[in-house]
Amino acid sequence: MNPAVPVPLRRLSADARAAILLPLVLFLLLAAFTPGFATAGNLGNLVVAGLPLLVLATGQTVVLITGGIDLSVTAVIGLTSVLGALVMSGDAGWLRGSPAATPVALAVMLGTGATVGLLNGSCIAWLRMPAFMVTLTTTLFMGGLAVWLAQRQVHAESIYNLPAAFLLLGNRPGLAAGVAIAAAAATHLLLTRTLLGRWFQAVGYNPRTALISGVPVGGTVVTAYVLSGMMASLTSILITARLETGSPSHGRTLLLDVIGAAVIGGTSLFGGKGTVPGTAAGVLFLALLSNGLNQLNLSDFFITMVKGAVILMAALLDVRRNRWARES
Amino acid sequence: MSANPTPRHPHPSPCRFIAGLVAVLLLLTGCDPSDPSAGKKSPAVPTAAPGGVRTIGVAFETLQTEFWVAGFDKLKSECKARNITMLEAVADGDAARQFDQVKNFIQRGVDGIILVPKDGKTVIPMIRAANAAAIPVVLYNRPADPTDARHTTVAPDNAAITRETVDYLISVAKRTGRKQKAMILLGDLSDVNALGRRDGFEAAVQAAGDAVDVVARVPTDWNQEKALAGVQSAFQAHPDIGLIFTSSDFMFPSIKSVLSSLGKWRKYDQAGHVILGGFDGDATAYQLMTEGYVDATGVQDVYWEAEQAIQAIVDARAGKAVPARIDDRGFAITQENLKQLAPRMWGAKQPLRP
Hints:
The complex is a heterodimer of chains A (328) and B (354).
Chain A: H1 7-14, H2 16-33, H3 40-65, H4 73-88, H5 101-125, H6 131-154, H7 164-171, H8 173-193, H9 195-205, H10 207-212, H11 217-243, H12 255-264, H13 276-295, H14 300-327
Helix pairs in contact in A: 2-13, 3-8, 3-9, 3-11, 3-12, 3-13, 4-5, 4-6, 4-11, 5-6, 5-11, 7-11, 8-9, 9-11, 12-13, 12-14, 13-14
Chain B: H1 14-30, E1 55-60, H2 66-81, E2 85-90, H3 95-107, E3 112-115, H4 123-132, E4 137-140, E5 152-156, H5 158-175, E6 180-186, H6 192-207, E7 212-219, H7 224-237, E8 241-246, H8 252-261, E9 275-280, H9 283-291, E10 296-299, H10 302-317, E11 325-328, E12 331-334, H11 338-341
Parallel strand pairs in B: 1-2, 1-3, 3-4, 4-5, 5-11, 6-7, 6-8, 8-9, 9-10
Antiparallel strand pairs in B: 10-12
Helix pairs in contact in B: 2-10, 3-4, 5-6, 7-8
């Protein structure tokens, strides 16, 4: 044991509830020192801006718990955004004008995310390929496919004129919040109240032990990636509806925030550990940080640097936590 | 062995957590964040007297090229000169992030918003959000797609300036006495500016009849690495390309890299020179023109556009009529009129690279 680090501090760092305190502390600090921060309008903006990240990070948390990583989520957002728009757009949609356009588009978007997840999970679980390599390759393929599809169908990268029924998700922040929170809550219940949730953690702790214990390791890993792909699709739905445009470039800059939110929230990069409330706290922390520093008129470059440093520290803490756990 | 090997972690009570989260989030999102009356206006943002402008939010899609940096700096200095506080934001190519930045400006009660949008479509809901808060919006150098959302665009006539530039390049090609193979480096085709420049190029080529043969149309998505790879591939397929037009001057370094490796980086008065033209009028283009490597470039007046953008907001706030479109007429600067027109080229006023 390393005597330099007091035991209470180690216990605190290992406690999932500590992550939930982080945004609270940051909120109090920003509210005290940042004029105009703690207003209903600003906090409403902050929450609406964080919804896509909440959904995406929730899916990523499940994959991280199994000991994997899904780098393809941003490409899934772009691909499903284009596909959904190609189905329902009033300009170039295959079902333009049809009342079935919106439900079919939603099904196509969610189905595409699930299919990409199935592909990723199958390569990782059954072909024993490294997760980062599989999902990075998928990112390249899906990213290229999205641009090609858009340019082939509409000779541009952006697809406009989406149905009003679909745009409700973008125009009504309460509805978008309800959908995002329902998805996060369902995943939380899945992780904490079901056998599958325990399997995710068992596989992440030690896949060999899990296998000997009767856990269907391959199927569990595949399910985690399917769930992550579907969450990426749901994120795509929220972003596409808000921007009223299908585009392969949606979500391109979210990857670091997604992994960062999960890690800040106490999800271990080594697998076996993580919670949805912790990830939600991580999302809230990053949203508060960006918004608060922005309110202080700091440049975006500075804000990005601070976020990078915070995520790095969270990853470092994760490494330390694992070492302390092994030592004790 | 246990069938349930998972160790238990301390979880907050899920029901309490979720109920609390739902309550807080729905409470917050229930109020319209774009409505400035939903919360107190930030005391950090100076408020304007009726009809006056004290604060402008400026949101750029990117600051990756000399052109955007020059425009951003000019807006900053122009705001300072007019005693206006400028709130700044850069979206790094992410339309969703830009929307959040615009919402943030609205919530902070700015008197006007100047936007360089990611593209012409995703900006429309942003303009609508500003319209709903009665905040004037100016699109700087990148127009929106047709929309009923109220805004003003300050932008160059891309097609006309490109046409003038490429007409000159073709006249140089004709002087060589042989049909030249040509290449265009296209911009991001979701960008109206890129489309205008492509159309101007194609119109000039079509009008020139048999003078040039376009053998490569290289997509770059405004990315230098893509441009480099595209130019390399084009020269592998057509080693005798004799005319290149780039839709933006910031891609000249990629062209120079390929031409240098092929021994074709030569001045306009040297044998084997590849005729080169661009668009923007940045410092790189100016330097390459003074050194004799570039034949012509289409110049847009970035400083004038910045002044007009701010003036449009000031006028809108004062209740004056502001046109929906303010055209930067621009011009083509060539080796023949370089000395005469250089004082009007914004890149000539930027510091030259060592």
